[in-house]
Specification:
This protein is α+β, with helices and mostly antiparallel strands and 89 residues long. Strands 2-1-4-3 form a four-stranded antiparallel sheet, with helices on one face. Helix 1 runs antiparallel to helix 2.
């Protein structure tokens, strides 16, 4: 089972500012929001930069919110990597 993971990174320090994960979102859900720039068959554990508005929309679908500034990335990760404590179903 895979989880969609949205990470927000500080643009200058590479510090992880926020992270949300969901097993209920699919790659198609991401593509519906982000568009064709997100691959149909993304490599596992490969981060894909997305515009802030799209990253926030994905977090909203997860029931999460991040209003700060940062660089948003989306990846697909195996469930064992996307720790249960980070998940929202």
């Amino acid at each position: 089972m895979l989880a969609i993971v949205v990470c927000v990174w500080h643009p200058e320090t590479d510090e992880l500012l926020f992270e949300g994960a969901s097993t209920s979102l699919s790659v198609q859900n991401v593509r519906d929001i982000v568009g064709p720039s997100f691959p149909e068959d993304p490599e596992i554990m490969t981060a894909h930069p997305v515009p802030v508005v799209h990253g926030r929309a994905l977090l909203h679908l997860m029931g999460k919110r991040f209003d700060g500034d940062g660089e948003f990335q989306v990846s697909c990760e195996p469930l064992r990597v996307a720790e249960v404590s980070r998940l929202s179903n």
